[in-house]
Design brief:
Elements: E1 4-8, H1 14-25, E2 31-37, E3 49-54, H2 63-84, E4 88-91, H3 97-100, H4 102-109, E5 114-118, H5 130-140, E6 143-146, H6 149-159, E7 166-168, H7 184-191, E8 198-203, H8 212-222, E9 227-232, E10 249-252, H9 258-267, E11 270-273, H10 282-289, E12 294-297, H11 302-305, E13 313-315, H12 320-332, H13 334-349, H14 354-370
Parallel strand pairs: 1-2, 1-4, 2-3, 4-5, 5-6, 6-7, 8-9, 8-11, 9-10, 11-12, 12-13
Helix pairs in contact: 1-14, 7-9, 8-12
């Protein structure tokens, strides 16, 4: 059977570039191709061939034009499956699952094994029909990759997915996605932050489940002019409406470019992820890849990555008072921060290194091809 691998990733996922590049270097594939959208921002970092078959992710046009463009992209991918005949069709996501799921059925019709990566058991913004739709997708997949036991359990309990269909392979580091960061002092000077400030950082697309409101409440409780907060990322639901920048608050509510991302991580002391729910977090892996300590809530699979007081800090969700106390405690003990930073630095390059994760992924592919 063909040793070609087609990775389908129509969203702006840093993970997809890391995966495709690692598979390309794993030495067990003749060729790896990554299907993305036209404005995919991480193509330059990818060592596999990149096919920009979808239109810009945020293309502005009328609905009919967008629909026709999308259907044309689906046709091109179907043609690639038919003519290129990969040995594995590895789907990271579907752009419009309601329209796109027949791609999986078409691959199965061609006897091409389908692998689905369930980054989340269900979409973050869930609709009534999603459980049935994703149940169909899980049924069409020959194998499913999940990043945590939490996600595996959710698929079994909520979607009746057979456990023997699942492979737990951790979310790898995002070291390839990092860019050289300016020294801490320079980063802070460029941002107008005091060299002595204790800087908190909330990063990524802002959605209600991410708990920014809890962090803002905790920050207000600290009531310390020498504690600063950076909030950076697209505000998708108006979570920051009414919030304005101040001397110790930096707001950057857009898609953050690489240079700004590196500057923010360099300037901060602690990345805070006060999520209400999550399966796994790319922001967590990016923070660890930038050697920044992380404080997160004990939800979803985060506790499977963070060992409390070893590779990060964990606390219960939905408790801004506890969050404020934990931030104050960590600030008062800088040796804890430094110890966690060093341990996370090691873990992200070993446990979450791509060499071993790609080897495990390739072994799963071989098992599917042998069936």
């Amino acid at each position: 059977m063909s040793r070609r691998i087609l990775v389908h990733a129509p969203m702006h996922y840093e993970y997809s570039t890391e995966l495709a590049s690692a598979l390309q270097h794993a030495g067990d594939a003749d060729s790896v191709r990554l299907v993305v959208c036209a404005d995919f921002p991480y193509a330059a970092q990818c060592d596999a061939r990149v096919d920009r078959l979808y239109a810009d992710y945020k293309r502005k046009s009328n609905k009919l034009t967008r629909l026709l463009s999308h259907l044309a992209a689906l046709g091109r991918i179907a043609w690639m499956l038919l003519r290129w005949r990969p040995g594995v069709f590895h789907v990271q996501a579907l752009r419009h699952a309601e329209l796109d799921w027949p791609l999986l059925a078409f691959a199965r019709l061609l006897r091409i094994p389908v692998v689905w990566t369930a980054h989340n058991s269900l979409p973050h913004e869930r609709r009534a029909h999603h459980r049935r739709l994703y149940g169909l997708i899980y049924a069409l997949a020959n194998a499913i990759i999940v990043h945590t036991r939490h996600t595996a359990d959710a698929l079994v309990e909520q979607n009746n997915v057979p456990r023997n269909k699942m492979n737990i392979i951790a979310h790898g580091n995002l070291l390839r996605m990092t860019v050289p960061a300016p020294p801490r002092a320079r980063a802070r000077a460029e941002l107008g932050l005091s060299p002595s400030a204790f800087v908190l950082f909330f990063f990524g697309r802002i959605r209600p489940y991410k708990g920014l409101d809890l962090l803002l409440d905790a920050f207000a409780q600290l009531d310390d002019p020498n504690v600063a907060l950076i909030v950076a990322g697209e505000d998708l639901f108006g979570s920051c409406d009414g919030l304005s920048a101040a001397d110790n608050v930096i707001l950057d509510l857009r898609r953050i470019d690489d240079a700004s991302t590196a500057r923010y991580f360099s300037a901060c002391d602690l990345v805070v992820l006060p999520y209400r729910r999550i399966d796994q977090s790319g922001v967590l892996m990016l923070a660890m890849s930038y050697d920044r300590p992380v404080m997160a809530t004990q939800v979803g699979g985060l506790a499977e990555v963070i060992d409390h007081d070893v590779t990060g800090f964990l606390l219960p969700p939905d408790d801004s008072h506890r969050l404020a106390r934990e931030i104050a405690s960590v600030r008062a003990h800088p040796e804890r921060l430094e110890s966690v930073r060093k341990s996370a630095h090691d873990a992200v390059r070993t446990t979450y290194g791509w060499d071993q994760l790609a080897a495990r992924t390739m072994a799963m592919y071989r098992a599917l091809r042998a069936c």
